[in-house]
Amino acid sequence: MLHMNSRLLAVASAIAIFAPAAVAMGSKPAEDEDAVTARIAPVAKLNVVAPEPAKAGTTGNRSGEEMYNAVCHVCHAPGSPVPTSPKFGDKAMWAPRIGVGLDVLTKNAIAGKNAMPPKGGAADASELEIARAIVYMADHSGANFKEPTAGGKIASSERSPEDIAKAACFKCHENGEKGAPKLSDMAAWTQRASTGLDALTKSVIRGHGNMPARGGLADLTDGEVKATIAYLMKRVGTAQ
Ligand code: HEC
Ligand code: HEC
After folding, report:
1. Domains 64-139 and 161-236 share a fold
2. Domain 64-139 is classified in which CATH homologous superfamily?
3. How far is the centre of ligand 2, averaged over its atoms, from the C-alpha of 238 (Å)?
4. Which of 66, 73, 113, 220 could cross-link 62 (Cys pair, CB 3.0–4.6 Å)?
5. Ligand 2 site, CB within 6 A
């Protein structure tokens, strides 16, 4: 190795000395240019060994896809050996997470959660970049999040009624668990729907019988509760 380096150095200085001398004398170099290029090639190569600047967008403004490819894929790619991380494209693993909303997911990803380190280990990532990466992964896994825009705060409600229902309501209302009126039970819903959407909304916000307040999703807004009830009722065919 040492021998090799000193030889390259010798070649480099030989060219450095030889080239200006040839020009000063007004004569053509003894060798043609191709030969010189070939001889300095190893030296020229040495100059580009320094790492190239990252091709991804500027830090602070990377796209979700760039973030995923640079950081998140290590644990979230389908083939990742990390067992508990929701995998890219795995709708079943993402569904309950999508339901809690982009805002909460972003907070959790920034703070870190169980085996996931804060920001997935990318300490220099901005909140916006983390949110974009989540949107990129989640939207390829059944979500319908909108990409947050630079500057603006991430809207607290990026989840659709369907997302919420999947995350919070179906678990009781699909099979009638804990005595919940089943979605297939048209009669039960028609009866309840007769009190009106506003009354039902109040009832769900408060909690009712075996149903916890807001169906157990404490951070649901009143509007989200209402929209989700309307969605459920559409599913049983009694939408108002
Ligand atoms: C070192 C492995 C690792 C890396 C890197 C990683 N994650 Fe995770 N992530 C996990 C694990 C493990 C979980 C599951 C945590 C749990 O619910 O127990 C997770 C869960 C999540 C969740 C769901 C959080 C919730 O509330 O359930 C989001 C969102 C997420 N990751 C986003 C990201 C983003 C965005 C990146 C890239 C910037 C990233 N992760 C990089 C391991 C990782
Ligand atoms: C833990 C199980 C459980 C979950 C989760 C749950 N529900 Fe319920 N829900 C019930 C039960 C049980 C009832 C019937 C309560 C009664 O009439 O005593 C009910 C009743 C209702 C009613 C009728 C209320 C009324 O006043 O008659 C609506 C509307 C409703 N649920 C909507 C939802 C929505 C929307 C979600 C998700 C955000 C949800 N539920 C999540 C168990 C659940």
Report:
1. yes
2. Cytochrome c-like domain (1.10.760.10)
3. 16
4. 66
5. 164, 168-169, 171-173, 177-181, 192, 200, 203-204, 208-212, 215-217, 228-229, 232
